[in-house]
Design goal:
The chain is α+β, with helices and mostly antiparallel strands. Helix 2 packs across helix 3, helix 9 packs across helix 10 and helix 13 runs antiparallel to helix 14. The protein contains 16 helices and 4 strands. It starts with 5 loop residues before the first helix and ends in a 20-residue tail after the last helix. The protein is elongated, with a radius of gyration of 22 Å. About 50% of the residues lie in helices and about 5% in strands. Strand 3 and strand 4 form a beta hairpin. The chain has a 4-stranded mixed beta sheet, with helices on both faces. The protein has 2 domains: about 80 residues, lambda repressor-like DNA-binding domains (434 Repressor (Amino-terminal Domain), Orthogonal Bundle), CATH 1.10.260; about 170 residues, Orthogonal Bundle (Arc Repressor Mutant, subunit A), CATH 1.10.10.
């Protein structure tokens, strides 16, 4: 557990708002050097400055004073699914946004606990390989054999807050990290449904295998976990023969993942050769399908509901919007994932 550190909270919220030190210092009417001292815990802001900081960053002074209890640091490094060419400034910004969401969800759910149907198990990757971990989680959740229908609801049933946002870049698919007894996954809202599902499963693999145990193979582990979780080998294996583009398209509709993910599954299972894999990707490139496959719009979309359903529950309990915002730690008028939706949703 981490002790209270004003500096980390201020730093995370500033980066999440995509504001420079100079810009925030100007809003506060202080020097950049003074703000730097706050962010580095060399000086603690007084009550008047806490109010100014909260107003500038869209949070309450009580939120800034809070002693957050969560696994890892407030400014923790995120598990993320991104391309190697992603700009550091982009993933640092999105990472800060994830950490801000971790703080807000932890702040609220300490006061409004969730009644959970499932839990995310945490395993040592030295003792359980990714395939075993995926099978163990499916068994723990008592999931049906075969394709996973509405993956997002399954993940939310274990108390994982899933949030879709505009990342401002196509090079980051998603990020995740634990926050107290629950976790947060942020998804790039511009992704097609098949890619979102694979990203959620990938981040779920990180939460299961890498909450305490980290090594150089974390991305490979998460990819293997996602493949087995969404496409169990003993079920999909017999279908991975004679993989024409037409058959792959049909399998995509059945399993809710991309043709490329299915072909990679076949390759990793030894169902196709390296030459066949090269031919497949040449076909995909020639048709312009490498970055955007056809048929993704036919996969049922999955909308995150848990955070908004918590807001609905608070709204139905008679709390005003201002009171709900206060529970989340946000200033009035600042949107949060816990805002009550217009249509009725039920907390899992």
């Amino acid at each position: 557990m981490m002790s209270r550190r004003f500096g980390d909270v201020i730093l995370v919220l500033r980066r999440a708002a995509d504001v420079t030190q100079e810009e925030l210092a100007t809003r506060l009417g202080i020097t950049q050097a003074a703000l730097s001292r706050y962010e580095n815990d060399l000086r603690e802001p007084d009550e008047a400055m806490l109010e100014k900081l909260g107003e500038a960053l869209g949070v309450t002074a009580e939120f800034l004073r809070h002693e957050f209890r969560m696994h890892g640091a407030i400014a923790a490094d995120a598990h993320m699914r991104r391309q190697k060419t992603t700009k550091p400034s982009d993933w640092k910004r999105v990472e800060a946004r994830l950490n801000a969401l971790r703080m807000h969800s932890s702040y609220l759910l300490e006061r409004v606990p969730l009644q959970l149907k499932n839990h995310v198990i945490q395993l040592d990757p030295d003792e359980h390989d990714p395939d075993q971990a995926a099978a163990m989680l499916r068994a723990a959740w008592r999931m049906p054999i075969g394709p996973v229908r509405d993956l997002t609801r399954w993940v939310e049933s274990a108390g994982v807050i899933v949030v879709e946002e505009d990342f401002g870049t196509h090079r980051i698919d998603g990020m995740s990290q634990w926050a107290g007894e629950h976790a947060v996954i942020v998804l790039n809202g511009s992704l097609p449904t098949d890619r979102k599902r694979l990203t959620v499963a990938h981040e779920l693999g990180h939460l299961v295998l890498h909450s305490q145990y980290v090594d150089l193979d974390v991305e490979d582990h998460a990819n293997q976990f996602a493949a087995e979780f969404l496409m169990p080998a003993h079920v999909i294996g017999p279908q991975l023969t004679n993989l024409s583009l037409g058959k792959l398209s049909d399998l995509k509709g059945e399993w809710g993942v991309s043709m490329q993910a299915i072909f990679e599954r076949a390759y990793r299972m030894g169902k196709v050769t390296s030459d066949e894999r090269q031919r497949f990707y040449r076909q995909m490139n020639s048709k312009g399908w490498k970055t955007r496959e056809p048929g993704s719009e036919l996969i049922p979309p999955e909308e995150p509901e848990l955070a908004a359903s918590v807001g609905r529950r608070l709204d139905q309990s008679g709390l005003t919007r201002s009171e709900i915002q206060f529970l989340v730690g946000a200033r009035d008028g600042h949107p949060t994932p816990f805002d009550a939706p217009r249509r009725a949703l039920r907390a899992v």
